[in-house]
Amino acid sequence: MAYEIEKTDDQWRAELTPDEFRVLRRAGTERAWTGEYTETKTTGVYRCRACKAELFRSDTKFDSHCGWPSFYAPLAEDRVEYIEDDSMGMTRVEVRCGTCGSHLGHVFEGEGYGTPTDQRYCINSISLTLEPDPQG
């Protein structure tokens, strides 16, 4: 897929920390319960850490007790891309930023989350930045 923002690995490495590069550009995963947004309740917009595209709003964030920030829907469907992922001996759906292709996490469906979409977007904190709502 062609992305609105495309850079070489060297360009991404110059802009991201080694841990950010490993997760965002190499589809790594941060350890559960270590991310800065896992338990955050701040109102605002979550953006892609790599390209700053708006991805999720805090009003769709919920506590799924999984160790990573969880959302039940992206800001809009065109903000994310879905890729089949068979990497861990199971089939999952990887979620990437629709603007730059950076790895965000995975989405899980139909597991009784009690959310309007019955989905859990399990997203790495290191893939996001939170822009707090100035109105609180």
Automatic annotation (TrEMBL):
InterPro entries per record: Met_Sox_Rdtase_MsrB (IPR028427), Met_Sox_Rdtase_MsrB_dom (IPR002579), Mss4-like_sf (IPR011057)
Pfam families per the UniProt record, alphabetical: SelR (PF01641)
GO cellular component terms, semicolon-separated: cytoplasm
Keyword Heme among UniProt keywords: no
Enzyme class at the top of the EC tree: oxidoreductase
EC numbers, comma separated: 1.8.4.12
Signal peptide region: none
Entry keyword set: Metal-binding, Oxidoreductase, Zinc
Molecular function per GO: metal ion binding; peptide-methionine (R)-S-oxide reductase activity
Top-rank taxon: Bacteria
Any single GO BP term: response to oxidative stress
Residue intervals of the MsrB domain: 9-133
UniProt-listed SUPFAM superfamilies: Mss4-like (SSF51316)
Cofactors: Zn(2+)
Cross-referenced PROSITE patterns: MSRB (PS51790)
Catalytic activity: L-methionyl-[protein] + [thioredoxin]-disulfide + H2O = L-methionyl-(R)-S-oxide-[protein] + [thioredoxin]-dithiol
Protein name: peptide-methionine (R)-S-oxide reductase
Organism expressing this protein natively: Embleya scabrispora
